[in-house]
Hints:
The protein is mainly alpha-helical. The protein folds into two domains: 9-115, no CATH class; 117-154, no CATH class. It is built from six helices and three strands. A hairpin with a 2-residue loop joins strand 1 (117-124) and strand 2 (127-134).
Amino acid sequence: MKVLLLLLFFPLLELFLMIQVGSEIGALAMVLWVIVSAVIGFFIIQSQGIDTIARVRDGLMEGESPAVGVLEGMLLAIAGILLIIPGLITDSLAILFIFPLTRRYFVQKLLARGAMNFQFGAQSKGRVYEGESESRSQASGVLEGEIVDREEKK
């Protein structure tokens, strides 16, 4: 029921704020704001795929968990989507996800809540190995995991 109310009232609140701000700064300025924010949102989404892959690859090469890179890429993609949606509240949330300082804050909060657990696999000489990894503290430098050989299970 709460989600339904949110889906009903959030667009109305966005529209109300856009009308109020538009009456202060002018309708043309408000329309330009919506168009420019949507273009920036599309640009952010388009650039995030390759950037996230590079960030994760660099982290893995340094022996770090890919969780930070993946979460930062996810938050930037969400920021792009929020910028595409017309409205001042969604644009404000997007700005929080775009700035590195606030984005890192949200990433650390998500990691602290255990939002990222990874399952990975590798194949070597016809054998398939699986494992799991949970996000780890940057300070510990230890990655604990378990490797399971599928061939031995059969």
